Amino acid sequence: MARTIIVVSALVDATIREGQADTTFILKHTMEELAEHIESTPVRADYLYFTQETIPHTNTTLNYLISMLENPFLKVDKVCYVTEKGAKELPSIHYIVEEKGFDNWEIVEGYLTREYVTGVITGAMRTDSFNKRRKALYRVPRAAYLQDRIKNRDSLEEPYEDDERMLKEVPPVEVPEPTISDSEEIAPIVHIAGLDTEERTALVFLLAQYLSLEGKTLIIDKDSAYHTLSEFVTKSGVECKQITVTEFLDDPERALEIIKTCSEKLICITAVERVSYSYAFLCNVLYSNLSTKISYFVREDDFDEAPLTMPYIVCVPSSVLGILKTCEQVDSNYVKLMHFVGVNLQSLPETRILNGNTMATIISDVLETDIDETVILNIRSLKIGGESGYDLRSIIEL
Q1: Does the pLDDT of residue 138 top 80, yes or no?
Q2: What is the set of domains in the chain, with CATH numbers?
Q3: Which residues fall within 8 angstroms of residue 139, CB to CB, at 6 or more apart?
Q4: Distance (Å, rounded) from C-alpha 222 to C-alpha 227?
Q5: CA dist., res. 351 & res. 146, Å (int)
Q6: How far apart are CA 89 and CA 55, in angstroms?
Q7: Cα 1 to the chain's mean position, in Å?
């Protein structure tokens, strides 16, 4: 039986229609768009889903939605609100549901990502609490009914045997000792996204040095034009194993074997010669062959390369201009996955943001969402362990 579902959310796109031919989706981004729709087209829907960003002014927008639901040209059986756990607007939602006595509203607390919201709508992320129980009436022949009743009465007269008496003749089952799997662990990928600046590359280099204290860590020079990371490696004098991109492309098997067997904990794939290459291709090839042979892999990402389903670090130049340029590239739908880290490369004191709370306040105001306190890293040396100490553990969870 065909269904009609209304979705008011900026997190859901037309791909939700794929594989659901029996469902008609009405997709809108705001409550105002839905109101315009029902002005010209009456709607009879089974479900209405809406998410947190569609009610920027919680109480006012909820009142507007309730007035729409009372419109005779909009009939909805069930309403579902999707938000993040512990969201600040939840008291208002619970209040209006209890005050109005709504018994067809459901509140789902989870994650405000496209994958999660789509899963809630399709049912992949939850069990449907709206499932109905139905009573069934069926007829049986009179003779079969009497026979079943007599059998039940006879069973009541049989002696009762408890579980211990019934199981005393069963021999014990030998439980095998647990075995520890000998499978090798997969190295985690630490993603650092941001503008294409020296601050981002410096953060990648310092973080890779820090992680190499615990295990073998791999980084690759992303800048095929100016070789920024390669310059940092050379000038800093950090002890590491260098393999050039040309060496890897000429003999990949030999380069992979060197990485697997070398004693150095920090491996840098540098670009010394002028050769064009694909950073994404190198990352995929190296990680697919070395994921069980290294401990960490640090990736330097542009914003369109950042992961959409796992947390990652966003490098922010510690100046007002750097913050504004970074926020222009940030997708506010995935802010909860981002850990903002300010980086200062000894720029002019007059233009720097010196306090993490100040940076967090500016980012929150620009993105119009609350973020956690940021950390500002003042880079005075590209080599850890010297006169300049860095609290790198505060910006990453190992």
Answers
A1: no
A2: 3-122 (3.40.50), 189-396 (3.40.50)
A3: none
A4: 7
A5: 92
A6: 9
A7: 34
Q: What is the largest CA-CA distance in the chain?
A: 97
Give residue 137's pLDDT band: very low, low, confident or very high (50, 70, 90). low
Determine whether 113 is exposed, middle or buried from the number of CB atoms within 10 Å of its CB (0-12, 13-18, 19+).
Answer: middle
Q: pTM for this structure?
A: 0.54
Predicted confidence (pLDDT) per residue in 311-325, tens digit: 999 999 988 899 999
Q: How far is CA 29 from CA 37, 87, 365, in A?
A: 12, 20, 22
The pLDDT of residue 397:
47
The Cα angle at residue 194 between residues 188 and 198, in degrees rounded to 5:
105
Residue 73 CB neighbour total at 10 angstroms = 13
Cβ neighbourhood burial of 166 (10 Å; 0-12, 13-18, 19+): exposed
Q: Is 234 exposed, middle or buried (0-12, 13-18, 19+ CB in 10 A)?
A: middle
Tokens standing for 273?
A: 């010669």
Strand order in the sheet with 74-84: 23-28, 3-8, 43-51, 74-84, 105-110
d(CA 33, CA 37): 6
Q: How does DSSP assign 334-366, residue by residue? A: GGGGEEEEEEE-S--GGGB---HHHHHHHHHHH
Q: Which residues share a beta bridge with 326?
A: none
Q: In a 3-state reduction of DSSP, which class is residue 148?
A: helix
